[in-house]
Amino acid sequence: MSEAQHYKQLVDEWLRLDQNPETRAEIQQLWDSNRLSDLKQRLGSRIEFGTAGLRARMEAGFSRMNDLTVIQASQGLAKYVLKNVDNAKEKGVVIGHDHRHHSQTFANLTAAVFISLGFKVWFFRQLVHTPLVPYTVKQLGGAAGIMITASHNPKDDNGYKVYWENACQIIPPHDSGIAAAIDENLEPWIWDEKLATESPQSQDPAEKGVIENYFKELGSLSAFRADNEASDLKFVYTAMHGVGTPYAKRSFEVFGLKPFIPVKEQVEPDPEFPTVAFPNPEEGKGALALAMKCANENNARIILANDPDADRLAIAEKQSSGEWIIFSGNQIGTILGGATLERMQISGEPVDKIAMLASTVSSKFLAKLAEANGFLFEETLTGFKWIGNRAQELEEQGYNAVFAFEEAIGFTVGKVVRDKDGVSALGFFAEWAIHLHNRGQTANDYLESLYQKYGYFVTDNSYFICREPETIKKIFVRMRYGDHPCPDEKYQYKLNYPATIGGHKVTGIRDLTIGYDSATPDNYPTLPVSSSSEMITFKLENGCVFTIRTSGTEPKIKYYSELASSSTEQARKELKVVVNAIGNELMEADKNGLEGRKEA
């Protein structure tokens, strides 16, 4: 069969299955124009369902986000939930969506699939921020939750995020089980958007009071309401053209905070994201330029920024010099972790049953805080799917899991939601900023005081681009087995990790790809092991910890490094040596033709 015949079959299959005239026309046009390379990208593979659900560009094709692939994903998910959750139809599924192009349609079609199988559907009629979906699963005892959003991705993308009946994001084996069920249910059995709102099986969970209950729980996180009401500290807020504004306003209200100053150009939902190239507050001063202008004009000292689906929070603070500091995710996590502990100590709550969590590529500050104050700290794999599920397990073991974070500006304060939530974190931080203001400190002063007490934690996270999979494989083989790996009698390589890096002795190694941990009695990691991606963590004698891992979606080798020392300057100086060694010694960046950063 020729290449053209092969793609003609795929085109015919797409046109047979797709009922959307716009996406049918897209594929037909590509075929009529003989654009086989485009057809290969669109039709040559299927969009993959993983622990993050689905996320891709919105356009026609089996590998993209569109009506057909959303229906197929929903059919597989519905069948899987029906098989694996008791009384799933009666418990129902929760469905929410953001403001992106096609989000409403994708949510409608998802609801129709579940309704057609006899499920009760808790379908939000209004735009919601992502954390409301898992919260509603928790409140109403749902069998699962689906949020249609691409979070902070560019405007052409959309996504499909799944929560299990425990109100946490799915983790293995559910991801592979759902993926298999999708492959078994590719023939659309319904295509009817009207069912989402017209079926008697569909009910708006807002009518059950879930939004009111969510904010009632948020209000219980407040500890200094009288101070909040009296404060003259000004805050500027941006929703980054997303859905966060009404939820951020309510958060301020339930904490007793005076209204924030909105960045008018960015507070209304707009799927075009007209003022930002990337709607991601992590992008720094570029993304926050309008917020800084607004803050300067209104003499406000603190900027609070949600990403478009408001599950993440960025913070910037103006210093007395006039300089703006944009706190990193690790710095915000340090401030919120310290604040959480201090508030519990003030209230007299027992510390020994506190648990805090962070992902393995995030700052180890919480580990130091826990060691010094006698509470439990645990690290998890990257992503709140791991953090949330582990926090739930710790709760069941009698711990009070009160705070968690990851470096990508994701935070869980309290136990309102077992997922990152930029709205609850926003209110909690604003209240703490006022508390600090009343005792003569800025947020940066408080961060400095934590560093003075527990050590100056400095991070350096970046990546190298490598477009050749074989080169990536070679780099990690050398990292594990040395320059001249030789198989033993069982044809297995003998582990030969580097003994020193950057002149510092290696004191600990955890390899979550092959399943090795030098710190455990049996040398097997306590964290989940997966051979599908590369991930090695090194600990050095000088206290530096760094993780090197591959990206599942981009041609990148990422590294996350951190070192604590007696001063920021000293920590930066020592970390620079290690970061240079990551590129030069471990990855041999020049020799392997890696693109990207070569110096700290």
Automatic annotation (TrEMBL):
Keywords (A to Z) from UniProt: Carbohydrate metabolism, Cytoplasm, Glucose metabolism, Isomerase, Magnesium, Metal-binding, Phosphoprotein
Annotated localization: Cytoplasm
Listed Gene3D superfamilies: Alpha-D-Glucose-1,6-Bisphosphate, subunit A, domain 3, Alpha-D-phosphohexomutase, C-terminal domain
Matches recorded under Pfam families: PGM_PMM_I, PGM_PMM_II, PGM_PMM_III
GO annotations of cellular component type: cytoplasm; nucleus
Residues annotated as domain Alpha-D-phosphohexomutase alpha/beta/alpha: 47-185, 214-318, 329-454
Cofactor section: Mg(2+)
MF terms in GO: magnesium ion binding; phosphopentomutase activity
Keyword Heme (UniProt): no
GO biological process terms, semicolon-separated: glucose metabolic process; purine ribonucleoside salvage
SUPFAM superfamilies reported in the protein's UniProt record: Phosphoglucomutase, C-terminal domain, Phosphoglucomutase, first 3 domains
CDD domains: PGM2
Family statement: Belongs to the phosphohexose mutase family.
Protein name per its UniProtKB record: Phosphoglucomutase
